[in-house]
Structures are given as C-alpha cells and as structure tokens.
Amino acid sequence: MSSLPLVSHVSPDSIIAWRADGAVTLRQFLAEVSQLVARFPAGSHLLNMCSDRYRFSVGLAAAIVAGKVSLLPSTHTPDVVRQIKVFAPEVFCLTDSDHYTVDLPQLRYPAMDVSQADACAIPQIDSQQRIAVVFTSGSTGTPQPHPKTWGALVSSVQAEALRLGLLRNTPCTLIGTVPPQHMYGFESTVLMAWLSGNALGHAQPFYPADICQALAAVPAPRVLVSSPVHLRALLDAGLALPEMALVVSATAPLSAQLAQDIEARCNAPLMEIYGSTETGLIATRRPTQSAEWQLLPGIKWVVEGDCVRACGGHIETPTAMNDRIAPITDEHFLLHGRLADLVNIAGKRHSLASLDHLLNTLPGVVDGAFYMPDEASPDHVTRLAACVVAPGMAAAALLAALRERIDPVFLPRPLLFVDALPRNSTGKLPRTALQALFQTHGTRKPA
Amino acid sequence: MQNNQKPTVSSTTDLQREVAELMIECLNLEVTADQITPDAPLYGEGLGLDSIDVLEVALTVSKRYGLQLRTDSADNQHIFSSLRSLSDYIASQRTR
After folding, report:
1. How far away is chain A from the Cα of B55, in angstroms, using its nearest Cα?
2. Domain B13-93 carries which CATH code?
3. Residues in chain A whose beta carbon is closer than 8 A to a beta carbon of chain B?
4. How far is A205 from chain B (nearest CA, A)?
5. A20-29, A41-50, A318-327: lowest mean pLDDT where?
6. Shared domain check, A94 and A29
7. According to the model, what pLDDT value does residue A44 have?
8. Quick one: which of A86, A89, A247, A372 has the most CB atoms within 10 Å?
9. Is residue A447 part of a domain?
C-alpha cells in the first residue's frame, strides 16, 4: 500500500490558510482537524456544506483522517438530499450556517480551542482511499456517483500546480469565487492549497467589491480562482484591483476578447482549466497565447467514431467528455462546443434528456420539453426555456415542483404553456420547431 | 469597514418602481413592475432569481446609482431578500 501526505507543507509554522482573524499555520490546522475528528458521529458519509472555505477544508481533512467519505452533490435541493440519503442512509451534514434547512442529522461546525495546537504529525493517506464522491445529473434524473480516490486527486492536482506555476518557493494565497463543494473549487482551491504548499483564503467573495476586499485582505502573491461570470462582473464594475500574480478560470471557455481584457486589467497571466466532474481537471491553456488546450501529462484521447474518451494519467476508467473535442496533436486539442444533450449554465451541467424526463414525470404535465436557445454571447449566461402542455396547472406550482428537484439555474425562463408541442408526424420534436415557437413568443412579451 | 451597516434610509415607492423596472429590463423578466410586490422574496418561490441574476442586477444597480454592493456578513442574501430591502439599500448608499 502506498500512501501520500495530506498536505505538502513541511514546517509546522507554514501558513495553510487565511481567515478573517489572520494566518492559520499547519500546526493550528492539524489541531483543529483532530478536534473535529473527535466530534464526528459514527456515520461513514458526510455532506460537507460549510460555506467558509477554511471550515470546509478542516471538515474535509477530518473526514479523510477519520476514513469517512465526503459527498459532493452539485446542488442541495430537497430531492437531491433525499437521493443522497438513499445512497448513504447514515449520512450526516457538517454545516456552519445559522439557517440550516437540510433534512439530515447535522453536526454544527464547533468553536475550536486553538491553545492546544501541539499535534503536528502530517497524516499519511492511503492512495487507494476513497475520500469523496461527486455526482453528475445522470440521464434519468438520478444523480450518478463518481468516487474519487486520494491518489488520483493528488496526481491531477499536482500536475495542475506544476502547469500553473504554483510550486514556486514563495507561497501564494488562493482566493476562490467558486464553492469548495464544486469539483473545480474542490480541486483548484482546497486541494491545490494543500498539495502545492500554498494557502487558501477562507472567503467566498460574491460581488466585485467583495472580491477586491478578499484579495486585499491577504498578502501578495495572490491567485484569483474564478469563473467567466464573476470575472466579467469584476471587470465591468471598474474597481481598482489589488495586485494579482495569476488569474485562473474554469466552468466555461472565455472568449478571446474577455481573456485579453482580464489579463490587461488584472496585470497578470490568465490560465484556463478544462475538466469535468467525472474526470476532474485534465487540461489547461493560456487563451491570450493560444486557443489550443494542452492535456496534463499522461492523459490521452481515445477516438472511436464520434466518441472521444479521456484516459491515462489520474483517470481510472476511460471517460467520454461532454464537449466536442477536436484533437490537434497527442497533447493539444480544441473545443468545439457542447454535445447537444448537455447544458452548462455557469458551471452547472445537466443532461437535457434528463430535464425533459423530469418535467414529464411531474403530476399535471401532459407533455413538455426544455429548450436551450443559441448563445447570444460566449461571456453571458444563456438561460433554458421550456414549453409544457399542462391544462389547469399554474406556472407557480410547476416552477415550485421543479425547484424541489433541480438547481435554480436550470429553471426555465420563459416557461410557456401551450395546447400542444410542435411535434412532427413521427412524434419527434425538432429543435427548429422549438426555436420557432420561442421566437414567436419573444415578440409577444407583455409591455 | 462600512459593510455591516444596515440601511437607515427607507426607499420611496417611486424608487421601488424604478428598481423593479431596472430588474425587469436587466433580466428580461416576463412580469410588469406592478407584479413585483415590495416584500415578496426575490429568490426562490418569489420572483425566482438565482445568484447569476443577482450578480447581473448588482452590476446594473452599481452603475445606475454609483454604489458598490457588498455581502452583508450577517446574511448573504439580505440585500436581495425583497424589492424593498434592495431599494432601501440603494437609498442609503447611492451617490447619484
């Protein structure tokens, strides 16, 4: 059995995080991890919902040390929580929120006694240990589990750290606008800080002014780990930006223009990451220098007809990607948009087929279909629309039923009530017919 | 740090209407300003906004009224909890 250290920091006095009250050393972090382990209930799975990135990281480390699996669904709707309970009946929820509404036994993140910060042996973790399970939407509405082992995560995150130039001698602080529960934030803020000897900022800034404040609150060099939605808002706000050493973006490719503007305004290189919930991160690019993505070392494409699978490196089973991949060389490729069935709204992915399935299983819905309009601009979020045949059903009731089951970003806007869907003679619903339906509707908006 | 300050100025119905129209325009919502009641939630069951919408509206509001929104440390979603709370925030923070 091979094992790998929980963190790559060596000195007990290395800084591993920044909280509102200042730096957290490795010694302090490990002491808090042991205190949390001692409070864990018996269940072998936990839903770590801490919104503070530092508390999330203590919860994750404590779970790893205690041999528990952290469950990371992409959303926490009541329906997903029910499915999580089916997946792991003994699951409990670790939370730092005062507004706890999840229907699971909860462990409130405790106040820690840092005066006893003496334990500091760095835990060694078996590379085969399953530390997390992430979930994708699946095609029938049941979330599909994807287990992650410690060894595979360490290998991909270390390859990313090397690619991003984060293994230098001067430790950086990573400020993330993405939640630590999302695969991107999980790998590129939490695990990245642990495995590259850097520190993570506790905050999850939202508004542009919050991002500036979170950056300014930690010493340089700073790395901003974000997404197109937040980066565009940050630039549009026109605020004076604190000095940054690197900007990282993922969830959707940036346009060349926005990428150039980000580098110019942030006065720092911008790197993009490509990956998926199933595979984790697999490639990077610097969009101001090339539109081509470069795979991480060891990862290869296997092309069979239209199906392109990623394999090798940290990927345990060959995995089909959700995007159209055009390999250029063994190492380089281009992205040509998403596959028709997949929608990606601000980094949350869902299968259109499964959204349709869900819509049609709602009581009162006779027929219904989701429709993803063409993107108006690559840097703006395009919303789903839907049309339904549901006589006697009110829009509010239908939306409430959907809200129980899917993340709010997938709620249709507009939701159109029709007498019949524009199905053709074979019962199929051509995209062009849906497009025409919504275009006609668009010209009849209320004044 | 001024971010935890609760708004002390109440918004007028004129301002609330103006903000409602700004949101409708910005998000392409299929309602009229009259249909957005001042105390109905903007998130979830109410108008159904999500965090991407909130970021869009925040940008528009920042430019229009010359202010910067900041996360209220007590409750992330407080400012956007209703049209009234958003309008009150604008009334207390606006520079134009």
Report:
1. 7
2. 1.10.1200.10
3. 99, 205-210, 213, 229-230, 233, 236-237, 239, 345-346, 381, 396, 399-400, 403, 408-409, 411, 413-414, 445-447
4. 8
5. A318-327
6. yes
7. 96
8. A247
9. no
Chain B residues with CB under 8 Å of A230 CB are: 55
Q: Long-range contact list for A419-424, CB < 8 A, 24+ apart?
A: A419/A389, A420/A367, A420/A389, A421/A367, A421/A368, A421/A369, A421/A387, A421/A389
Query: Are A326 and A355 found together in one domain?
Result: no
Model confidence at A15, pLDDT cuts 50, 70, 90, reads: very high
Q: Do A181 and A238 lie in a common domain?
A: yes
Mean pLDDT for A375-396 is 86
Q: Which of A338, A373, A393 is the last residue of a domain?
A: A338
Minimal Cβ distance to B48: which of A230, A236, A411? A411
**Other beta carbons less than 10 A from residue A238's beta carbon:** 12
CB pair distance less than 8 Å for B30 and A400: no
Cα gap B30→A422, rounded to integer Å: 22
Q: Report the residue from B51, B62, B75 with minimal CB separation from A237.
A: B62
Of A207, A381, A408, the CB nearest to B70: A207
Cβ contact, residue pair A237, B68, below 8 Å: yes
- Measuring CA to CA, which residue among A332, A350, A333 is closest to residue A341? A350
Question: Do residue A121 and residue A199 come from a single domain?
Answer: yes
Task: Kindly state the average pLDDT of the residues A369-383.
Answer: 82
CA-CA-CA-CA torsion sign (A171, A176, A182, A183): negative
Residues of B with a Cβ under 8 Å from any A Cβ are 28-32, 44-45, 48, 50-52, 55-56, 58-59, 62, 68-71, 75-76
- Residues A289 and A326 placed together within one structural domain of the fold: yes
CA A318 vs CA A184, A305, A307, A311, A340: distances in Å = 20, 15, 11, 5, 21
Task: Show residues of chain A in contact with B28, CB under 8 Å.
Answer: 413
Mean pLDDT lowest for which of A38-47, A139-148, A206-215, B50-59? A139-148
CA angle (A214 as vertex; A212, A217 as ends), nearest 5: 105
Q: Which residues pair with B49 in a beta bridge?
A: B43
Q: What token pair was written down for A400?
A: 């409430």
Q: Which pLDDT belongs to residue A446?
A: 46
- The predicted model gives A305-333 an average pLDDT of 90
Q: How confident is the model at residue B76 (pLDDT cuts 50, 70, 90)?
A: low
**Residue at a domain's end among A285, A312, A338:** A338
Q: How many domains does chain A have?
A: 2
pLDDT tens for each residue of A199-217: 999 999 999 999 999 999 9
Count CB-CB contacts under 10 A for residue A1: 6
ipTM of the complex, rounded to two decimals:
0.82
Nearest CA to CA, how far is B10 from chain A (Å)? 23
In the chain, the amino acid numbered B68 is: Q
| pTM score of the predicted model | 0.88
Backbone φ and ψ of A55, nearest 5°: -65, -40
Q: How far does Cα A309 stand from its chain's mean position?
A: 21
Residue among A84, A101, A80, A2 at smallest CA distance from A43? A84
Share of chain A above pLDDT 90, in %: 69
